[in-house]
Amino acid sequence: MRLAILSRGPRLYSTRRLQEEALKRGIHTTILDPLQFTLSISKDSPQILHKGNKVNFDAVLPRIGHSITSHGVALLKQFEQLDIYTANSSEGIRQSRNKLLAAQILGRNNVPIPKTAYVRNINDVERAIDLVGGLPVVIKVSEGTQGRGVYLRHLYKDAIGLVSALLDLDHEVLIQEYIHESHGTDIRALVVGDKVVACMRRRARGKEFRSNFHLNGTVEAVDLPPEYEEIALRASRVLGLNIAGVDLLEGKNGPLVLEINSSPGLEGIEMASGVNVAEKIIDFLEEDAQFVKISMDQLLLTVPGHGVLPIHLVNHPWLVGEKIGEVFNGFGTSAFALSRSRQLVWAPENDMKLRYNDIVIFYGDLHQLRLNLKEILNFEIYNNRKIASNNENSEKFKTY
After folding, report:
1. 115-178 adopts what CATH topology?
2. Which of 103, 101, 48 is nearest to 71 (CA)?
3. Secondary structure (3-state) at 185
4. pLDDT for the residue 358
5. Which end of the chain is more exposed for a tag (fewer CB within 10 A), N or C?
6. Each residue of 210-263: pLDDT tens digit?
7. b or e along 3-30 (b: 16 or more beta carbons within 10 Å of the residue's beta carbon)?
8. What pLDDT does 387 receive?
9. Residue 318: left if φ>0, alpha if ψ -120 to 50, beta else—which one?
10. C-alpha distances in angstroms, 338 versus 213, 261, 263, 299, 306?
11. Is 25 helix (H, G, I), strand (E, B) or coil?
12. Can you give the pLDDT at residue 396?
């Protein structure tokens, strides 16, 4: 395998450790500055040049800094179009880097996070503070790293003044619930693939409430409870990351995801946990790079007029308790998949009964799907059809 580590800091601890472990396995490894690439974009022959030369490697391990996120995402997207393996996808990095977008995705997928409000108008600050539970609150900009752009405020006037200043600088501003019981501490879980390979507890020093290692915080080993591990894995998965540092707060009602880092530092966590995290990452990369990565969203839209059509049972409660086969199969279509309680069931059995929060997913010709499902989604039509069907069965039973 020929591996490129994308990093602007070849002497940084994390970059050096990853290269060391790759070289131990005989992997030809080069550290390349992501700002030294040129992209040639066309329908027939997209290209990537590094210092004017065509790239010649099989896999990419991105260590993209916050300051070049936009460029890094574009570069990784080009690698993906050339079917060159990337350990973290362009979309995963893009989603994790924007705290507002990440919070929306996590909340939509039932991953617990502190209550969060997004404000664009200074007149909304007091309302937003009340929405997240009152003072004190954490105020943060949507894009930032290593604790920068994160502030704690105890008074309305201080919060309003800070938000006003951040808005004047054209930042996206989030106001977030302050978790008292987790003041100055959090847990960093290092996710690689489908495992948490290492974790540590970080503690702030003195009056500082941010526990980041780069802000002179201390680190120590910690045994991660199964509930915390499950949340960390789910958070990285829904954001589309194979390698991630998931920061968790220890709330009174369980873990809360604070932030997810797509290029986590290795120094603190290797020191605290005693785990060779760089080795775990290279092990995963060697195994995972054998498989081509595709975007299911793009794949399902490649046929003109075809796509995914979901039906949420919350909007159609008269279908609750019915069997999937009896509801849908008589209309020339069948369920492609069913989403239930954070689980996805492919090609569900016909005798599976529908529940209130189920999402039934169909795939095919969208125009035809809508026509086929029209009667089911109309309560009066569906109810009359069912009554007629029951009456018909009753008459047959009497005849028999």
Report:
1. Dna Ligase; domain 1 (3.30.1490)
2. 48
3. strand
4. 94
5. C
6. 766 555 678 999 999 999 999 999 999 999 999 999 999 999 999 999 999 999
7. bbbbbbeeebebbbbbbebbeeeebebb
8. 64
9. alpha
10. 42, 31, 33, 19, 19
11. coil
12. 45
Q: What is the mean pLDDT of residues 314-331?
A: 86
78-104 pLDDT tens trace? 999 898 999 999 999 999 999 999 999
Sheet harboring 85-86: ordered strands across?
28-32, 2-6, 59-62, 85-86
- Decide if 360 contacts 340 (C-beta within 8 A): no
**Cβ neighbours of residue 196 closer than 8 Å, sequence gap 6 or more:** 189, 190, 224, 229, 232, 233
For residue 288, the surrounding DSSP H or E stretch is helix 277-288
Do domains 183-288 and 298-399 share one topology? The answer is no
Task: Give the tens place of pLDDT for each residue, 8-22.
Answer: 999 999 999 999 999
The answer to whether the beta carbons of residues 61 and 33 sit under 8 Å apart is no
SS3 track for 31-69: EECHHHEEEECCCCCCEEEECCEECCCCEEEECCCHHHH
Residue 360 to residue 341: CA distance in whole angstroms: 12
- Give the domain 183-288 fold: D-amino Acid Aminotransferase; Chain A, domain 1 (3.30.470)
CATH 3.40.50.20 fits 2-96, yes or no: yes
Of residues 231, 243, 234, 257, the one with CA closest to residue 99 = 257
Give the homologous superfamily in CATH for domain 298-399: Regulator of K+ conductance, C-terminal domain (3.30.70.1450)
Instruction: Give the pair of three-digit tokens for residue 146.
Output: 């290593």
